[in-house]
């Protein structure tokens, strides 16, 4: 059977779509997995859902799977641990490898690499649960500016994130973030529009600009709100679009990202882009950004999913 991408789906063999898992992003992972599974089946792929929270990962071998499409978001699926397990099992899998997955999952390590390479990213500080002192919040606010984003170092989908404008709010937000991670990123908030660039097989897809009436582009704005607006094309000039795409590719490669993913940005009032984070297993729900960018580039959802599956080449 052939597809619009001239792919013979028989080459894939029996495919496991990993979704669900144990992370705080389980709900989104299941939605992404179900959408991807439906597309694969529609294309004629012998695909099956596999939830590692319900089945031992070794069953992938016992059940005869030939390759794995990872739709696990967050810890246990996007942080390198699953990638390492699949390598031990000698099963080809989609997306970034162990190192790229682990680095991109850690917002602080990602920023430190980007800083070292001179890539633009907002000023930040780090709060450690073991040594955090509430009295430091006023100093942090003074050093980072009038608005600060508080982010657990290793969570996705904006889980545990808070936007604060004073020291009292900062202390509360840090304590809330400690519920998700012992290390918390405190980042100067960039006032301006938010953009994202999806990456597929070494190429940048058209950028998307997001607009929300929420305090920021949080979990509800991403997955539940009907008031979030998406602009694709994003309205950038050709020059800025090319510049942003090149920066996204450079940033993704810097953390050893490969196959497919997404890089998020803010743009300040002077027009400067700032890197926020890299995602190695972005959402693939009906509200997700990668399918939107792929559509603008002329790809159907089914074609996109097959292209992602092709990144599991066994190398």
UniProtKB/TrEMBL annotation:
Cofactor note text: Binds 2 magnesium or manganese ions per subunit.
Keyword Kinase assigned: no
Residues annotated as binding Mg(2+) 2: 277, 279
Location in or out of the cell: Cytoplasm
Pfam family, one: Dala_Dala_lig_C
Gene3D superfamilies found in the cross-reference section: 3.40.50.20, ATP-grasp fold, A domain (3.30.1490.20), ATP-grasp fold, B domain (3.30.470.20)
Documented EC number(s): 6.3.2.4
Top-level division of the source organism's lineage: Bacteria
Keyword Ligase: yes
Family stated for the protein in its record: Belongs to the D-alanine--D-alanine ligase family.
Function: Cell wall formation.
Name of protein: D-alanine--D-alanine ligase
């Amino acid at each position: 059977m052939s597809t619009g991408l001239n792919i013979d789906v028989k080459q894939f063999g029996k495919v496991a779509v990993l979704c669900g898992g144990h992370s705080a992003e389980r709900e989104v992972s299941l939605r992404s997995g179900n959408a991807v599974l439906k597309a694969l089946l529609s294309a004629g792929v012998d695909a099956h859902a596999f939830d590692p929270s319900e089945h031992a990962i070794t069953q992938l071998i016992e059940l005869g799977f030939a390759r794995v499409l990872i739709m696990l978001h967050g810890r246990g699926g996007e942080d390198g641990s699953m990638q390492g397990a699949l390598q031990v099992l000698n099963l080809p899998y989609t997306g970034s490898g162990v190192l790229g997955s682990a680095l991109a999952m850690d917002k602080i390590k990602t920023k430190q690499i980007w800083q070292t390479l001179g890539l633009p990213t907002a000023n930040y500080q780090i709060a450690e649960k073991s040594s955090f002192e509430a009295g430091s919040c006023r100093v942090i606010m003074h050093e980072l500016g009038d608005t600060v984003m508080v982010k657990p170092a290793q969570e996705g989908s904006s889980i545990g994130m808070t936007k604060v404008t004073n020291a009292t709010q900062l202390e509360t937000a840090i304590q809330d973030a400690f519920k998700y991670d012992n290390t918390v990123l405190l980042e100067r908030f960039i006032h301006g529009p938010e953009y994202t660039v999806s990456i597929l097989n070494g190429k940048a897809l058209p950028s998307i600009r997001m607009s929300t009436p929420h305090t920021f582009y949080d979990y509800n704005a991403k997955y539940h709100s009907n008031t979030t607006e998406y602009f694709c094309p994003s309205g950038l000039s050709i020059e800025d679009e090319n510049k942003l795409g090149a920066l996204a590719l450079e940033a993704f490669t810097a953390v050893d990202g490969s196959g497919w993913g997404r890089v998020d940005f803010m743009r300040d009032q002077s027009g400067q882009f700032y890197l926020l984070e890299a995602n190695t297993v972005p959402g693939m729900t009906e509200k997700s950004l990668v399918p939107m960018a792929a559509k603008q580039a002329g790809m159907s959802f089914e074609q996109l999913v097959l292209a992602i599956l092709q990144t599991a080449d066994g190398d």
